[in-house]
Write a structure and sequence with these properties.
The complex is a heterodimer of chains A (about 300) and B (about 325). Chain A is built from twelve helices and no strands. Chain A is flat. Chain A is mostly helical and about 300 residues long. Helix content of chain B is about 70%, strand content about 0%. Chain B is mainly α and about 325 residues long. Chain B contains 14 helices and no strands. Chain B has a single domain (about 40-314), classed as MetI-like (MetI-like fold, Orthogonal Bundle), CATH 1.10.3720. The chains are: A mainly alpha (about 300), B mainly alpha (about 325). The interface of A and B includes residues 18 and 152 of A.
Chain lengths: ~300, ~325
């Protein structure tokens, strides 16, 4: 197991090096840069100074190596948009809203999703099941930015209960959280329903019923235990979707988080910031995948990792 | 038909046996022995699926809207009809109202479907045109080619595809062509992995080993087995790819890096309507409804196809 994880971490590092190298080359290959005439009217001398300060006069491989060094030192270099701040300090500032919304999205998705899924499975083929199944189908395909607009229309415009954007009051969390979590809730609910139905039809449940086990004891010890353990493996695959939708939801609700930071950095051609955000996102998703694979071995001891013998 | 052929639910709930449905199922099993029956069986399953048919109606309505946009709208979508009367609410003359530049909103919504459908279909087709040959080659040749293609998909798959698209669009600039590039650059991964998996699974089949033992060439075996085996998963993947690309277009235009104004696109209209949410709420509502409806329609069809073509799933 330890060897497997070490191997995976090593390949994550390689993949991230490749991702950042491609991003780096891509940004260099296209015309236009952060210090163009149109963005800042500066004399050639000043511009040369700025370029020297950020190391942009050096050959490309030196620039890339400087980036790798800054990642290893965990300060990620200096941002062009916020002169004087290390990117690490900008991340420290912007990660709080993103982690609050993203973290509570996962919690809300698991709690509500499990409840809906369990209810639908126990009431299979009744109107309640149909409503939940159809509702989750709708929720899975509605894009988060469309949902965000509808939520603002309802809760801000029609009811006047919640603010339409910003990040000052606790109420500011609610609408972004709702827009972000509908998809994950429906995802978990569907997974739970299918998993529950599968367990409910298994032999050991029938045997337990035949022995006279019923009610809460049957549900908790024989059904839920087996049906809900696999949920550990669906949290990881939710991460990329949450990252993507947080970009839209944060821009829409003017949340000063890492999602809007990414959009702003790309627009500004803030190279170090783009590279750093890409690294963080790539690391997060690669790590979520690794977690998922390890989770499979907890859930099902028959799964063995890294046994690539064929 | 023996008891073991019946689905398990039928054993659990003997009281609610649906004899009509069982008879139908039995007759379908019989007609499954006739040639070309898989497809007909799938079509009949699809037709019986009410949600899938609803989705099909929605998709057809969208296509009709896109094709006949000039006939069903009073004015060109870019045409500013008024300079003194703007942001009008829906009325008899303008069923969806007038936007902040005095343009008929129904015309913009209707023409917006053209961009959505075009990007959805073309981006998906381009993705398949790149992904299928690459995946098939990786699967058939194996070795270094396979390794390279798989590492590329792994690297591209590390960053969510929409974020890659954002990066590409900002670097290359906005516009329809760059939008297609931005979506297809990660869109080919799915089809490539799918067809590679198909090649690998066909390779392992006993009858393929038998064919090899009889001396058939690899190429002929692949050609004869791969296409019929891959038809259903490819069709499903195509059907899910289109709404994915439509959503990507709407999302990127929503962020202001997609389709350039004045050409109407729903995502772009949605973000243009945002500042007016308090006073002229319908400007954001209609494009939101249209994006939602098109996502629902296409996904209903895709789900229906999945259920019809792969009865074992679920």
């Amino acid at each position: 197991m330890g060897r497997y994880i070490a191997g995976r971490l090593f390949s994550i590092v390689l993949v991230l090096l490749a991702v950042t190298a491609i991003t780096f080359l891509l940004m260099q290959a296209v015309p236009g840069g952060p210090f163009d005439e149109s963005k800042m009217a500066l004399s050639p001398e000043v511009k040369a100074n700025i370029r020297r300060m950020y190391g942009l006069d050096k050959p490309l491989y030196v620039q890339y190596w400087n980036f790798v060094k800054s990642v290893l030192q965990l300060n990620f270099g200096y941002s062009y948009q916020f002169p004087g701040d290390t990117i690490a300090s900008v991340f420290a500032r912007t990660s709080t809203p993103t982690l609050i919304i993203g973290g509570s999205t996962i919690v809300v998705a698991v709690v509500l999703g499990v409840i809906l899924g369990v209810v639908a499975a126990y009431r299979q083929n009744t109107w309640l099941d149909y409503v939940i199944t159809f509702g989750t189908t709708l929720g899975l395909v509605i894009p988060s930015f469309v949902l965000a607009v509808v939520l603002v229309l309802i809760f801000t415009r029609a009811l006047g209960w919640l603010p339409s954007g910003g990040w000052a009051k606790p109420q500011n969390v609610i609408l972004p959280l709702m827009a972000n979590s509908l998809g994950p809730i429906c995802f978990v609910a569907r997974y739970t329903r299918n998993s529950m139905l599968e367990v409910l039809h298994r032999e050991h449940v029938r045997a337990a019923r035949a022995k006279g086990v019923r009610g809460t004891r049957l549900a908790t010890r024989h059904v839920l235990r087996n049906a809900l353990t696999p949920l550990v493996t669906v949290i990881g695959p939710m991460v990329p979707g949450i990252v993507t939708s947080s970009v839209f939801v944060e821009s829409m609700f003017r949340v000063p988080g890492m999602g809007s930071l990414f959009v702003g950095a790309v627009g500004f051609r803030d190279y170090p910031m783009i590279m750093a955000t890409t690294t963080i996102i790539g690391f997060l998703i690669a790590f979520a995948n690794l977690f998922t694979d390890i989770a499979y071995t907890w859930v099902d001891p028959r799964v063995r990792l890294g046994s690539a013998r064929r | 038909m023996t008891v073991s052929d019946l689905p398990e639910t039928a054993i659990n709930q003997p009281a609610e046996r649906d004899y009509d449905a069982e008879l139908e199922r039995a007759s379908e099993l019989e007609f499954a022995t006739k040639p070309r029956s898989t497809l007909r069986y799938a079509i009949s399953r699809f037709k019986r699926n009410k949600i899938a048919m609803l989705g099909l109606v929605m998709v057809v309505a969208l296509v009709v809207m896109a094709v006949f946009a000039p006939l069903i709208t009073p004015s060109k979508p870019e045409e500013q009809l008024y300079f003194d009367r703007v942001s009008l609410p829906p009325n008899w003359e303008h069923p969806l109202g007038v936007d902040m530049l005095g343009r008929d909103y129904w015309s913009r919504i209707a023409y917006g479907s053209r961009i959505s459908l075009m990007v959805g279909v073309v981006a998906t087709l381009v993705s398949f045109l790149i992904g299928l040959p690459l995946g098939a080659l990786a699967g058939m040749l194996g070795g270094v080619v396979d390794w390279i293609v798989m590492r590329i998909t792994e690297v591209l798959g590390t960053i969510p595809s929409l974020l890659v698209a954002i990066l590409i669009l900002v670097l290359l600039g906005t516009g329809v062509q760059n939008m297609l590039i931005a979506i297809a650059i990660t869109g080919w991964i799915g089809p490539a992995r799918l067809i590679r998996g198909q090649v690998y699974s066909v390779r392992e089949e006993d009858y393929v080993w038998a064919a090899k033992a009889l001396g058939l060439r690899n190429w002929d075996i692949m050609w004869q087995n791969l296409i019929p085996n891959s038809f259903a998963p490819l069709l499903i993947s195509l059907a899910t790819g289109i709404p994915g690309a439509i959503m990507a277009e709407a999302g990127l235009s929503f962020l202001g890096i997609g389709i350039d104004p004045p050409t109407p696109s729903w995502g772009q209209m949605l973000s243009e309507g945002l500042p007016y949410l308090r006073s002229y709420w319908w400007l954001a509502l209609w494009p939101a409804v249209m994006v939602a409806l098109s996502m629902l329609g296409f996904n209903f069809v895709a789900d229906g196809l999945r259920d019809a073509l792969d009865p074992r799933a679920r």
